[in-house]
Amino acid sequence: MIDKKKYILSLENIRKTFPGVTALDNVTFRAEAGEIHALVGENGAGKSTLMKIIAGIYSPDNGSIRLGGNIVEISSPGKAQSLGIGMIHQELALVPYLTVGQNIYLGREPHRYLKAFIDWKKLYNMAEEQLGALKLEVDPKTFVIDIPIAQQQMVEVAKALSINAKIIIMDEPTSALTDKETRILFGVMRSLKEQGITIIYISHRLEEIFEIADRVTVLRDGLHIATSLISDLSQDDIVRMMVGRELGDLYPKNTIPQENCILEVKNLSSGKLLKDINFHLNKGEVLGISGLIGAGRTELARAIFGIDSFDSGEIFIDGTKVSINSPGEAIRMGLGFLTEDRKEQGLFMGMSVRENITIGVLKKFSTFGFPSFRKLKILAGKFIKQMNIRTPNVNQKVKNLSGGNQQKVLIARWLNLNPGILILDEPTRGIDVGAKAEIYALIDRLAGEGVGIILISSELPEIIGISDRIIVIRQGEITGEFTREEVTQDKIMQCAAAGGRYAS
Amino acid sequence: MHLKEADLKDFLRKYSVAMILLIMIIALSLFSWRFLRPSNLINISLQTSIVAIVAIGMTFTILTGGIDLSVGSVVALSGALASGFIVRNGFPLYSAITLALLIGVGIGMLNGLLIVKGNIPPFVATLAVMAIARGLTLVYTQGRPISGMGDDFVYWGSGKIGLLPVPVLILIIVLILSYIVLRHTQFGLYVYAIGGNEETARLAGINNDRSKISVYMISSFTASLAGILLTARLWSAQPNAGVGLELEAIAATVLGGTSLMGGYGGTGGTVAGAFIMGVLANGLNLLEISAYSQRVIKGVIFILAVMFDIYTKKEKKKG
Ligand SMILES: Nc1ncnc2c1ncn2[C@@H]1O[C@H](COP(=O)(O)OP(=O)(O)OP(=O)(O)O)[C@@H](O)[C@H]1O
Ligand SMILES: [Mg+2]
Known about the structure:
The complex is a heterodimer. By secondary structure, chain A is of the alpha/beta class. The model of chain A is unreliable at 499-504 (pLDDT under 50). In chain B, 75% of the residues lie in helices and 3% in strands. Chain B is built from 13 helices and 4 strands. Residues 315-319 of chain B have low confidence and may be disordered. The site of magnesium ion has 6 residues of chain A, from helix 1.
């Protein structure tokens, strides 16, 4: 018999279905006061859904929620807040043209005169304090749209802290944070824990979980698999429970690059963002680009892909000089670019999986401008199977997929175009280990087929694991280049940070 | 001092309307000596005040990411009702005005309910209500103007306090009130929040429905007010009053820097936008450009304003 009083929060036999999907099936989840409880599982396992039930966004089809022993009904986000439950959402959810301070206290503004007027001075003072606690040097009066993504993520944290919650849910808060900011966040989490606050922490980075969590709950396909003390488990145990099978080599590497150069960039400069960048990419090669968030890696990719113009420099594809002025031209020249921000720049969230996968090849499957939906459906189905995309059917809207599966849909779209050069910007952000392994295997396979791949990544193990060659960028400049054989994490970190803004 | 592109955009985002207005005024006063005469300036203010009042309400709806196409019809309806109540029913002046305003606000509530509860896109809902309100006006007036309201009514459109015409004074009051509401109240903040990211606002526990219905009520209120002022200025209620006014109000809002996507902008810019159009029309008149060509020029200006809006809002990806 379990002592229910011990748990500040307990969810019993929770069931939640969406049309065509059973997201949660008879899940039980219990958290103790003052613990950091990690929640792990593959993409689509139901983690976010379970948390949204606690935060009052979804109501369960079945099951009960107890808070401090009493059954509660959490009917709305507002109700959850008043019960002391705060949530940091997986997808950033700030209002772009409100200030940092306004975002933090949105819905809970300090007021005066008849409760209708906002006390701005008080609000900004409070915001200042909240940001200070997070060591975040941001003026609370700046618009959110004007600060970098990593800082926006920290603003989300400040927002969740500001409700004086007893329970804080963090759904992948570190996926867009730099290492330094992750450290700060962990510090904050530890001090919250000391104050007796419960934190439920979702992350696909298992190292983080071993560092910070006390206990862990594993979900798989909407089922509760296990809850255990973290000290009783090894990383392999967790992976096995998540995936439900033994996972082979995470970083397969079966191919070696060919001799001929397919892409060469010479003396590329663009304002302060990029300074005299030179590099080349061979057929079948995986070129890793490492560096800190904000170092100019994405800018480089955008310049090559014709999204942003640059001041000077030349680009050669297959030895011929080219000028690429738009993404359309880049695609016609055989380039593909998987953006880091899949929600804003990649996917059509309101459209179906089929439409998203096949939108680039409509013409090929059309007669007189009328696409053959049968063929497109088959094509999409092929990718869903090949890449193991979890969706009830090809017509599901992409916004209803879990984050990791959205990413796979985006990759499928690019593969459809058979690019000769594929730029992947943080391709595994927010993706579970199983899917990561699949994506790495895919990268290896593509390289084997002769595709040149540029991999931008902030995760060192990943970039070291699958690149043939790695260049490091710091503040818009190439500061190091290593072959697969000579590279180490330390060498990369030194080039990335020495004298840089994030040096510590 | 080095101006970065972002700073420049920010500066333009904030002050471009005022600058454009200033440049236009300077240019026009160089072209035509009549432009700067006090009588002409007062005339411009008077002409602009009606559009500007309507546009202030419009700004609220656009800030939430919506739009209100029914304002022109509401202008006509409220003018007709207020006049009719006085002339046909013998209501006292202020009861007639109050009642007309209330009915106007009721139409705004209808807009809001259709959008929020009926889940109809604002464009469609207010387009339908635009037809309904115009129809009601025509039915009520039987297609004929109503006049003979008496001097105390006409005062509201043609009277002056000191140098200032009454409608201009009312515009100033409405502008100040709208500024306070948008910048200092909870409701005002929620208007921006909803336009910026509706889902986030909902997750923050904000009652989006209530705020959305309110903005359409505000929009109809300012339209009704403008309708009464217009009727008072013209000495009669015209069943066709305010046709096309929604376009002018939207143009003023967008010219004034409010984003059509919602979430960014304000009523100060909107009034400046309305004055840009007023000054332009006046200038074109002084330069003796035909009314037909003026329409083309206005359309071009509108497109330029939207392009400008897009330019200043386009941010570069960081990362
Ligand atoms: N609003 C919705 N409508 C339909 N299906 C949904 C909806 N929300 C989630 N699902 C489905 O429910 C399942 C669980 O999704 P959930 O977002 O909880 O996964 P997750 O564990 O958070 O995954 P990830 O690690 O990728 O974020 C998925 O199959 C997803 O497609
Ligand atoms: Mg999730």
